[in-house]
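User: Hi! I'm working on a homework problem where we have to compare a predicted structure to a textbook description. Could you give me the structure for the chain below?
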Amino acid sequence: MKHDDALRSRKTVGLDAFLGAERSRIIDAATPERREQMHAAERTREVYRAWNAVCGGTREGGHVTGLRYLPESNQLLVYADAPAWTQELTMLREIIRARMAREGIDLDGFVFRTSRPGYGSTEGSPRKGPRPRGAASQAKPAPRCPLTDDEAASLSRAVEPIEDRRLRDALKSAMAASLEWKKGKEAQNKP
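Assistant: Happy to help. Predicted structure tokens:
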């Protein structure tokens, strides 16, 4: 039964049925260009919903100052409040991507950036507005050092037993990023 028919007959219609009929009515009446814009907006909303399901309320999510879905590259641009959190999120990218895939969103990747000074959290608390001047972290992230062939082969052997190819690749990528960061940190701390 259509939405208009239900209104005319004064029958009770569930909210889901009403919303579905109203959505269909609006989309059917739209021009093809406007319809494409609506579908793009729905896709963006689903990406943000999946991000919030995966990272909302987490320690890492508390340091995210902004998101922007990039439909042309199917990537999510994520702004973090400090370089250290940008690095942390970069190392977790494959884990986050795998979890978002479980939520039904397959992204081609992420772009992580540090917000300009004045935006973000202070001392681990959720963002409540701009930071005072000079409060931004001055620490430089450790440079990443590429893996040797032996290290890459060792990672491949470690994840080989995982049957799910996407999960295996995501885990291998996350482990590689972590090892590259650790090597960079060690190289940075050498005298």
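For your comparison, note the following. The chain has two domains: 31-138, 142-191. Residues 63 and 85 are 7 Å apart (CA to CA). Good luck with the assignment!
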